[in-house]
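Task: sequence design from structure.
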């Protein structure tokens, strides 16, 4: 177990200054305990996240190749596109589990609470978008995939955009 102390002396003094005379307030910051598993999950989440942007870039390049190929059903890029999409699915599964679990464990910690909550909601939205992307992808029954490819691409690009924005929010905003 480890303990995180929220607040500090300057925060306590500011709170004391806001209190009317005769009202006492405990000036000590509140200690929040996290499990060792929290730290482990946080490291897994952080290091797995480094694969996000390279996987997105690869998937976008492969997807554009297939999108422009009139023989996309027999394209060699199709298998690679499916493999990278599967890797993104695995990455998002791992990061969703570790992120949601740690968000729940840190619910009493006011540090970056709004930032983490916004990040989590955006990433869950991106997860839903990736499910929709998969659902609109080609299959053997969809003879007219050409009609669906614009929808598939739009959902994929939107999901990637939301996920990238949320990723960058945490990367640069969690200081």
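Answer:
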């Amino acid at each position: 177990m480890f303990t995180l102390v929220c607040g500090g002396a300057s925060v306590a003094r500011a709170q004391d200054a806001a209190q009317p005379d005769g009202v006492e307030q405990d000036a000590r910051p509140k200690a929040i305990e996290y499990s060792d598993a929290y730290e482990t999950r946080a490291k897994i989440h952080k290091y797995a996240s480094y694969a996000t942007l390279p996987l997105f870039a690869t998937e976008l390049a492969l997807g554009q190749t297939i999108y422009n190929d009139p023989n996309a059903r027999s394209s060699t890029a199709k298998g690679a596109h499916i493999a990278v999409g599967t890797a993104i699915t695995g990455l998002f599964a791992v990061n969703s589990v570790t992120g949601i679990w740690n968000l729940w464990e840190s619910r009493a910690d006011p540090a970056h609470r709004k930032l983490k909550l916004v990040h989590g909601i955006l990433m869950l939205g991106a997860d839903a978008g990736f499910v929709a992307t998969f659902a609109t992808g080609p299959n053997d029954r969809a003879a007219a995939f050409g009609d669906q490819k614009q929808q598939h691409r739009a959902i994929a690009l939107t999901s990637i955009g939301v996920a990238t924005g949320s990723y960058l929010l945490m990367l640069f905003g969690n200081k």
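The first strand starts at residue 2 and ends at 5.
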